[in-house]
Structure formats: C-alpha cells, structure tokens
Amino acid sequence: MELDDRKLKILTAIIQNYLETGEPVGSRTISKYTDLNLSSATIRNEMSDLEELGLIIQPHTSAGRIPSDRGYRLYVDMMLKEKEDELNNLKVELNAKSERLDTILKEAAKVIADSTNYASMITVPKYRTKKIKFIQLTQVDFSTLLCVVVLDGNLIKNMMVPCDEELPKEALLKLNLMMNTFLQGLDMQEINVSVMQKLRNEANEYSALISNILDAIAKCLEDQGVEAYTSGSTNIFKYPELNESGKASNLLYALEEKKELTDLMYKEGDSNRGIQVYIGEENPIEATKDCTFVTATYHIEDGVYGKIGILGPRRMDYEKVVGTLRNLMNELDGIFGKE
Amino acid sequence: MELDDRKLKILTAIIQNYLETGEPVGSRTISKYTDLNLSSATIRNEMSDLEELGLIIQPHTSAGRIPSDRGYRLYVDMMLKEKEDELNNLKVELNAKSERLDTILKEAAKVIADSTNYASMITVPKYRTKKIKFIQLTQVDFSTLLCVVVLDGNLIKNMMVPCDEELPKEALLKLNLMMNTFLQGLDMQEINVSVMQKLRNEANEYSALISNILDAIAKCLEDQGVEAYTSGSTNIFKYPELNESGKASNLLYALEEKKELTDLMYKEGDSNRGIQVYIGEENPIEATKDCTFVTATYHIEDGVYGKIGILGPRRMDYEKVVGTLRNLMNELDGIFGKE
DNA sequence: TATTAGCACTCATTCGGTTTGAGTGCTAAC
DNA sequence: GTTAGCACTCAAACCGAATGAGTGCTAATA
C-alpha cells in the first residue's frame, strides 16, 4: 500500500488536531474540519490504512486515532525539511555582550520556556579544550588570594586560595607573570607534571603556594559534569497526559537531576549542527518516554559549544519549537561568535 | 476546660501518629498504641475535648482526627523549647573554605533536602551594605576588559566590559589605582554623582570607559532580587496530601519562581537568629497554605546573612527539621565566620 | 465520679452493574 | 471509488448497595 498525498493530508490533519486537543481524533472530526470533502466513512477507510502503515494507533477499540511515534517522526521530518532555510523572527530579549555568560544562559532558558510553554534546559558551554587565556592573582586580604582564570571564549572562573602571609607586591607581580607565561594557552590536560615542576622551581620559596593555586585551578576546571540551567519545568503540568499518575514527578526529577538529560544532549557532540528530536519511545531515558525531547547546539567558537533542550509532551508544537530554537541559536551564535 | 497532662499526651500521640501515616487517626489507634491504658471510649471523650479546644479537627464526621494548625503550633513550640540548647550531630559534608560560595550553598541545599526529604531553598547572602573591598581591572583581549569586584565577605563578582582599544599598561595601572582609592570601602548607595564626577575628572581621556565600568558594576551589584538555590523540590511528591489536584504544581511553581518565598524569608531580617515556622494557614503565601515552611538564618559577618528554608507538608518531622537546620547553621557559621 | 462496653449512626470508599455516546468496521447501494 | 446505514465495541460516567472505620451517646461498672 502506498502513502499517497491524500493519506498524508489526513495524517497531517490528525496530528494537528491531536496537537491542539490532546484527545484521540475520530473520522467524523477529520471529515468535517478539513477541506477534503470526504465522508467520515472514507476517512475511516483511509485511517484504517494509515494504521496498517503504523503511522497512527487506536488507544483502544472504538476510540479515535492518535499519531504513533512513527507518525510524529514522519511529520517532524517533513517539517524540518520545509523549515530548513526559513527563519522565524521572534525577538529574543538578550542584550549586551557584557553580561555574564551564565546570566545570558539563564535568560535564554527562560525565554525559551516562556515562549514555547514547555520545559527548557540549557547547558553551560562545554570546553572541549579549556584553554587558559589569562590568569590573575590578587591579594584580597592578608590570608586570602583571589585567583581569576579567564578561559577561551571569555568564560571566567574565580576561586579563593588561602595563603599564610601577606605577599610583597613584587612577589605577587612575579607570580602573576609566571603563571601567565607558563600556563597561557594550555588546557588542563597539558598542565602536566613537568610544567608544574618548572613553575615550582621558578617560584622557589612560594612553591607551596603555587601548588595550592594549581590545585584550586584544577578543581575548578575539572570535569564536574556539565553545568546546566532549567526553566519552566512546571509547564509540564499544563499537559494532562504528562500529569497523570506518577509521570510528572519523574519528569521533574529528571529535570532537577539534569544529568541524564545533559548526557543525552551531549551524546551527539557538536558535529550535528542541526536539531535533534527524540519522540516518545525513541527517547532513551526512561522517565521521558512519554515526552518529546528536542535538542539543539549553539556554538561559541570552534570546539566550544553548548546545548539547548526542550522537553514537552509528544504532541509538541514542533513548528514553533523548531522555529524558536533556530532563532535562539542564531542569537547566541551572534552574541558569542563575534568575540 | 483545662489542657491537662493527659490531654497533652493524647495530642502528642495523635500528632506523631499522623506525622507517620498522613491518615486521620482514630481513638482505637491511640488506645492501642500508647501506654496510657485507656479504652477507646475514654480517648474519644478526650478527643472531643481537644477538638473543642481547637487543637485537632475531624475532616468529616466519622473520620479520625488530624491536628489543626493550632495543634501543630503547640507541638512545635513545645519542641522548640526542648531543643533550645540541645545539639544534633548530623555531619554536614561541607569541606574546605576555599570552595566558592555558591558551590557551598548549592551543596548545603542538597544536603538539607536529602536528609529531611523535604524541599529546601537557600539564599545567597544578602549584603545589607555591599561594601567594595577591592577592584581589579584587567585587559583580557584587545576589546574586552575584565572587571573583578570583591565585596565584603569575599563575595566575588566579575563582569566583562567592552572597550574600544587596547589600553597601555600604565593607563590600566592608573585606572586600577584610581578605582580602588575612590571606591574602596563604599557601597553602591555611596557611589553617588559626586564620586563619579571626581573619578571621571581624574580619568580625563578614559572618562567614557569609566562610565561603562561603573555602569557594569552598578548593574552587577544592584538589587536584582535575592539569588537562591533550591533542591529536592520533587520530594513534594512523596506526600500525597500535597500531591492531590493542582497543589503540587503550584508549589513547584513557587519553588521555581522563588521570589515570593525569598521575600517571606527576608521579611524577618536577621534580627531573629532563631528558627521561624509557618504552619499551614499561618503561611502568607497562597500556594503554600497546605504546607509548613521553616526558615532559619545563617550569618557570615555583621549585616551579611542568608536564609535557609524548608518546605514540606504540615505533618513535617519538626524535630528532625529543626535539628538539621540548627546543625547546618552551625556549620555555615563555622565555615564563613572565621574569615 | 471516672471509665468502659455496647450499640446505633455517619459517611468516605469500594465495587459491580447499567447507561451513554463516541467511534469503529462492514456491507450494500450509488 | 465513495458513501449511507447499521450493528458492534468499549471507556467513561453514573448509580446504588455493601463495607468498614470511626464516632457519639447511654447505661453499666468500679
């Protein structure tokens, strides 16, 4: 049996109706609310075919039909193709490059959640190579040093390092110079024993302090898993089918824990610049098997990228989501890309 | 009618039983599971009295009794008195003063949520006077300045400030010196027009840059509401009475939005060093009227304090919560206090 | 006088059965 | 190929009886 044009139209009608209502849709509805001018009986025949093709399912005998994961998949694929070079012009309210990265990201997550009405999640860029661009040591008070590390892409990390005594100005200057000459341009993997040895040799009397500082830096930069912000998790409650029994609870837990979701997002790496869609059972995470999870990648510079994810019901407004994501990605690329 | 000792014992028994089960407790249960050796009939009489005193209520005729807000209040007050100088010895797994403040706080929120099984929230200390302790400007690349501001209590803020040109080393040094001499020890309120004017005069050719920097600092320090972290919000699902109908959704929303809750926490200021308990209707926030909200204050130094809140069902294990909070407060005071 | 046993009563919850109505599949006619 | 008509299915809504936990009251008891 072939999937002809009429069948496709009916499938689309079913999906769109289901997206709106969340209820199984029957033949009569389609017959009435499309311009196909077909009787419900004919629609029924077609539906029967579509079911045989595995694109729609009946939750139970004598109920209407709902799209199957395969059905959604077809729909989404069609739409992604259509959207390929189109552009949505939602104006994201992100301003000023001078804002701090995390503020921007939190804001972005919120914008997405608010404009789509689904739950969103955004990760702080993962630095494949966290190259050190700049280090600055400063004495804050007599027993504390402030160490600021700027990484590629202007990601700033700072940490307090305890020290025993007030350092003379010249010593501080020297330390700063040393740190920068030895460490600039390196990433954590490259700070190996020999580099550390050299540094400590140069530092002579402050070698203990240097160790402390390096430890602090290492701790700060080490792969503590991916940092991520979520927003709009309570939007989940807007969709009854996610709200029933214990489902919402598991979803929210997944959003709070974040790990599973970020792992999934990063599985694809940055190679795939496009948008990834996991529909229902396609979703490898147990808690989200009733959801659709859409992920996208934004880029700061080569090898530095973060992920955005949107979690909502199967009946997600794919057009809007994809549009919003495309848009936000452009915004982010614009904000970060021109540095 | 008097609240004699026996009545008090029965009330306590009712509350404790209800805390465990979450179900209305009947006379027979009390009669069997206490060492009072009274028949259920007697208990019934006493219960009837307790109800008249407004300490317990019947959700409906022929159901058992549950504590009223007043009943809880009595119980909590008794308990707080008992606990006054006792000390719980849960070992909080917070280490190293060198950790960054936000990491510690996130960790603390998590510890609390995990060990109590309620939702927790912790605020980043609010600086009544955000005095500037130290400012450091550094050129990160040819068009970006990094500005690090250290506030009293070693709270670090950093921001990127765009600039048009690469500044000569001496200029940067001068700017740094100026900023520190003029701004050190001031808080945002004190940076008024005259100070800014003076700064700009000194800076002459860089006066535009100075304006940018001051803007960035102001933006960064301005009262953007209180920052707060939550943890364990999904614990809410563990309590059926909070889970029914739309309640959980509202609660989670409140926890996500945070504002209302932090406002409430800060209403008390830091004057009250003790623990504050809002039971059910005592709670001014609509969404949490079915909950108990326990808040505590931790101190970093004079005028610098943060809040911890625990949100759970009315039938909260008050002993444990108060114990845990006391303990955590000590830990935090210990970590921050010795600076 | 305080306590208790006994009993009638209340009412939320559970369970089985019926009704309703949306929706299907099939068949025969167009 | 399309449609009208009809028998059939089944989830959900509705209804009422049974269940049982728990109460309040009363009369007997210590």
The separation of the N and C termini of chain A measures 55 Å
**Largest interface: pair, residues per side:** A-B, 35 and 34 residues
Helix content of chain A: 40-55%
Our count of domains of chain A comes out at: 3
How does this structure look, described?
The structure is a homodimer of 339-residue chains. With 339 residues, chain A is of the alpha+beta class. Chain A folds into three domains: 5-67, Arc Repressor Mutant, subunit A (Orthogonal Bundle), CATH 1.10.10.10; 101-124 and 226-337, Beta-Lactamase (2-Layer Sandwich); 132-221, Enolase-like, domain 1 (2-Layer Sandwich), CATH 3.30.390. The first copy, chain A, is 45% helix and 19% strand. Chain A has helices at 5-21, 27-33, 40-52, 69-83, 101-116, 169-183, 193-203, 207-221, 240-243, 247-257, 259-267, 318-337; strands at residues 56-57, 66-67, 119-123, 126-127, 132-141, 144-151, 155-162, 228-231, 276-279, 291-301, 304-313. In chain A, strands 3, 4, 8, 9, 10 and 11 form a six-stranded antiparallel beta sheet that branches. A three-stranded antiparallel beta sheet of chain A has the order 5-6-7. In chain A, helix 2 packs across helix 3, helix 5 (101-116) runs antiparallel to helix 12 (318-337) and helix 7 runs antiparallel to helix 8 (207-221). The radius of gyration of chain A is 26 Å and the shape is elongated. Chains A and B meet through strand 5, strand 6, strand 7 and helix 10 of A and strand 5, strand 6, strand 7 and helix 10 of B. Chain A binds a DNA duplex (30 and 30 nucleotides) through residues 24, 26-28, 38-42, 44-45, 47-48, 58-64.
